Amino acid sequence: MTSPAPRPGLHHLELWTADLAAAEPAWDWLLTALGWSAERVEGWELGRIWRHPDGSYLVLEHSDDVRGDRADRRAPGMNHVALNAGDRATLDALRAEAPAHGWRELFADHYPHAGGEDHTAWYGEDPHGLEVELVATDSAD
């Protein structure tokens, strides 16, 4: 008897933004570069969805219930989203292109080991302060 294929560990993640028009291009570039596919929901102008090949998805949404105009990763709640970036060459390429797509690099003076010597990653912040960590998982460095 064979075991069923493992399900993704994450079903979906919903991120709220104060300005969807400003945040969407940054997330669209990043997620599509990582192999996620954009999906439109007809009639829903306040949100966007990107689906990973494993079936999990990320939602970026504006709501009238959003308070403030920036995320605060140091406040209680979610600190950041960590995504697999593949190999180190892909990570380096994404790092080089990110500023042109609205991302501000965090911890640049410690790249690529801001998370520790045995961890290869790039950290960035979208136009509204949402932090992302891209992790190179296909090579040690």
From TrEMBL:
Q: Which PROSITE patterns match?
A: VOC
Q: Which residues form the VOC domain?
A: 9-137
Q: In Gene Ontology terms, what is one molecular function of this protein?
A: dioxygenase activity
Gene3D superfamilies recorded for this chain?
Answer: 2,3-Dihydroxybiphenyl 1,2-Dioxygenase, domain 1 (3.10.180.10)
Keywords of the record: Dioxygenase, Lyase, Oxidoreductase
Mind telling me which InterPro entries this protein's record contains?
Answer: Glyas_Bleomycin-R_OHBP_Dase, VOC_core
Q: What is this protein called?
A: Catechol 2,3-dioxygenase-like lactoylglutathione lyase family enzyme
